[in-house]
Amino acid sequence: MQIEFFLKQKNCSRSISLPSGEILNLTWNLKDEYPKPYPAKKGLQEWYKNTPKRKDNKQEEYARDKGGTIKNCMPVFDILSTGYIIPLVDPVSIEIDGNEIEYGDEGRLLFSGHVLNQYTNAPFEDEYVCKYDNIWVVKTPPGYSCLFTQPFYQSNKSFTMLPAIVDTDTYENAVAFPFTIKKDSKKIEIPKGYPMVQVIPFKREEWTHTIFDEVFEDKVQKITQSLDKTGIDAYKSLYWSKKSYE
User: Fold this and answer.
1) 238: helix, coil or strand?
2) What pLDDT does residue 60 have?
3) Helical H runs in the chain?
4) What DSSP state is assigned to residue 126?
5) Which of 118, 222, 232, 239 has the most crowded Cβ, counting Cβ within 10 A?
6) Does residue 224 sit within a domain?
7) Residue 246, in any domain of the structure
């Protein structure tokens, strides 16, 4: 299967009213060199790349009493490396002054916001909700949608992207990405190329569920024994399937 990224726009112009009443006529143009979407596996976060596979930071063969780290957990690797990353194409600074939000720098026309009554009663109603007006139209084959979320395990404490699912096989338009900022924040700087959103395509299918009273004790015991025998990479070597996103 193939996911496609199309540019929605290379420039935009808009008039902005400042709290002072001043009107700013702004223009934004996409530069010749700009960050493009890329497979998540090609942009693994630094904290993950720098984590050793053993708690004692040695590379020798696994010993159970030494213990592995999160680096050995293939489910974590899968969620970090699944899908694609949409980076920020221009830097932006966001200043909060009272109840006013001001965007600065080159990318200010790529950002906007939501008024409080649009998300009253939401669990983040006590925060500001801003919006990154993404320039990419994401297109998937018929029957496939996309989960848009903050990159998993991202060490970002300044803002939180709000996840959503979009039927990108029929919605041929750029998806705007809202994010929350705590009201005690003062200024946030987001650099060019920052990994704003992780995109995970998936096939829409109908599911049902069944609950059984039987206990999986025998199977669980066999798997536990196999994990003990194989060591630190047991799940990877015995049960894990490689996923491909290029």
Assistant:
1) helix
2) 47
3) 46-49, 74-81, 217-230, 234-238
4) T
5) 232
6) no
7) no
Range of the domain at 178: 4-45+81-203
- H-helix or E-strand containing 85? strand 84-87
For residue 79, the SS3 value is helix
Q: How far is CA 123 from the centre of its chain?
A: 20
Contact 90, 82 (CB under 8 A): no
Asked if residue 161 lies in contact with residue 199, where contact means CB atoms within 8 angstroms, the answer is: no
Per the CB < 8 A criterion, the answer to whether 129 and 180 are in contact is yes
Residue 172 lies in a domain: yes
Number of domains in the chain: 1
Per-residue pLDDT, averaged over 82-110, amounts to: 88
For residue 107, tell me if it sits in a domain.
yes
Q: Coil, helix or strand for 177?
A: strand
CATH classification at residue 147: 2.70.40.10
Confidence at residue 97, expressed as pLDDT on a 0 to 100 scale? 81
CB atoms within 10 A of CB 98: 7
Q: Of the ranges 6-20, 51-65, 154-168, 186-200, which one carries the lowest mean pLDDT score?
A: 51-65
pLDDT digits (tens, 9 = 90+) for 125-148: 888 889 999 999 999 999 999 999
5 near 172, Cβ under 8 Å? no
Residue 147 tokens, joined:
């989960």
Q: Is 91 exposed, middle or buried (0-12, 13-18, 19+ CB in 10 A)?
A: middle
**pLDDT at position 184:** 85
Read off the pLDDT of residues 151-163 as tens digits, 9 standing for 90 and up.
999 988 899 999 9
